[in-house]
Amino acid sequence: MEIKDVKLFLDSCHAAKRIVELMPKLPKGLTPRHIHVIEAIWQISQEYGTVKISDVSLFLRVTRPSVTKLINELASLDVVRKLPDPVDHRSTLVELTSLGQKYYDFYVDQYHNWLAGQCSDIDPEHFRITADTLFHVFEILSMQKMEVPENE
């Protein structure tokens, strides 16, 4: 692969980050990562009924401590409720509060529908190829780290 292709790819990654930052203004204390957790909780609950913190971690492919921190922040904002798991006392269940559902409805459901309308002229296959490429590069780079040379 040529360096110019790598540069183009990295520039597009920066553009992707800016696209996420263009979402409607979030309420005080919320970040796009929180919205991603809200979406994960909603999707998992639709499929399985109950949601454990570990389920959210697996769904988002991020560490459990990272998800636990985000869920604790959402709980302090009354966006999610944490409950003891009646079956596995070592686990914690999470569910969206009415405020969390309101945020899901606007920042995920309505926003994604609006975004789909804005991008209706783009071939859906281009979206899938772009997503597959980003996930694949992330997977590759997650396995390898470039070593930083020691200062001489």
Give a written overview of the molecule:
With 152 residues, this protein is mostly helical. It has a single domain (3-117), classed as Arc Repressor Mutant, subunit A, CATH 1.10.10.10. Helix content is 64%, strand content 7%. The protein has helices at 3-21, 32-48, 53-60, 64-76, 98-118, 124-143; strands at 80-84, 92-96. A two-stranded antiparallel ribbon has the order 1-2. A hairpin with a 7-residue loop joins β1 (80-84) and β2 (92-96). The longest helix is centred in the C-terminal third of the chain and has 21 residues, at 98-118. The protein is globular.
- Binned, the helix content reads 55-70%
Strand content: 5-15%
CATH superfamily: Winged helix-like DNA-binding domain superfamily/Winged helix DNA-binding domain
Strand count, sense and barrel status of the largest sheet are: 2 strands, antiparallel
Q: What is the CATH class name?
A: Mainly Alpha
Number of strands: 2
Q: What's the number of domains?
A: 1
CATH topology: Arc Repressor Mutant, subunit A
CATH architecture: Orthogonal Bundle
Radius of gyration: 18 Å
Topology:
Elements: H1 3-21, H2 32-48, H3 53-60, H4 64-76, E1 80-84, E2 92-96, H5 98-118, H6 124-143
Antiparallel strand pairs: 1-2
